[in-house]
Fold this protein.
Amino acid sequence: MRLRPAVTFHVVRADGGPEVTVPMRNDVLTCGKKGDLALHLDPFVASTQARFAFADRHRLAVEDVGGGNGVFLRVRREHELTGGGELRVGRQRLVVESVVPSTPAPDGTLVWGSPDKDYRFKLVQMLEGGLRGSAWLLKDGDNYLGRNSGEVTFPTDAFVSSRHACLRVQGKRLVVRDLGSSNGTFVRLVAPTLVEDGDHFLIGRELFRVQIGRRA
Amino acid sequence: MSTALFSRLAIVCPGCDQLNPAGASRCTGCGADLFGPAEDTVEPGQGAPPQSIPPSTPIPPGGIRRRQIPVLEHHESSATVAQTPIPLKNKVHPAGSPFVLTVVSGPRKGERFRLAPHTVIGRTRGTLLVPEDPFISPQHATLWVRDGRLHLRDEASASGVFVSVATQELVVPGGYFCLGDRLFRYLGALPPAAISPAGTIVYGAPLPPGGTCYVLEERLVGGRSGAAFVSAQPLISIGRKDCDISFPDDDTLAPRHCELTPIADGAVLRDLSEGLGTLVRLQPGVERPVKLGEQIRVGQAVMRFEAAEARR
């Protein structure tokens, strides 16, 4: 019978200090304030927020099991987003919303407003405590996200790279791609997801890397 | 289409509701003068030449529901139109006032309308019908001229009626204003964040530095929220370039078009567009006088209130 691979979790410290390493001893590992991987100092982490488990004998999967703040996976290449999807870059949490086409009232009147260039998606900044902050309409084609340049900018967020990510709208699709940023672009998990060796996860303010190797 | 429509509108007698043919000056039913007697009025301090200004028509409470006197005479500004009834340089028509509305922006840019004492603009009801503009409500706004000024009232239209900011104006939280082809809504101060009783705080970006934050939102066609801007700065500038909110591709805007200064009960909107105009939306049912040279927006059309002779 095939043995399950060895899994270790490496919690990355924001100050660049030594990593905390936690081995996965059973078939299941929980993350949270009261989890096996204890993240008890973070006010944004629930008691149990993520659950890692072997889907079968040798494939590791992760799922979001509560808390509301989500489990975010670092994008390696590119990732398709849909309405309701979420991104994290730097200290930002951004929600993708679909823009519905305008419809006239039953009497035929349309409410006047700024021109709509067939926008399909909007990016909404979530603020600490759950308030909605700034919002950006995404045009068809490439929308660049960065600290000071591009369509979506965060001049006061030092954790956002100058050229951080690209959001490409093509018809009804929205794809995010990291542009080699220092701190990465993360997408929120919406379903149980298989974990690959070297995947980075963000829960609250905690960042950790999962190492999957052969058991000696 | 509308050119012919305006000049061919049947005239309903305000006294007896008799339907009279287009161009009639006296009612075929009761013999009343359809346009009322003309009166000499001296304009107070407007600098316009003394003209015969017909008296304003009183507005019945609750607005006008039935079709009234056709009030706007419409003239092409450049091309000679065979059906144009009275060129503007001619003697003032008895139905008209010595004032015009010149369309400065919109599909009918350049056209001029001669104002009559009393006008109801609507897409399907009123005395000035604009069937081709979907942004105009069936009955949209009432305009009348009194004492040399244009008075306006929004008849609870969907898109609203906008008037120029002379220098500055207070915009209350929830109030709308427009510049160029863009519509904005000032939402006021960001409310304090709810404290989660469970102990876990909803994750999000830290609030912008600088204390209380204010929210400004762009509104898209169809009454939808567009981009939103959160700022804790004491002043928010909007324009084409180098502003807090910049639209580099929008040539309907001045480089620095306007500034918004949040205060306790709203925000002070200051126009810096040097004539392009920053306009605020009227509260429905509220009367507002407009001076010569100021602009109004109704649907897609931005129009300037001018003396008829000003350009001739």
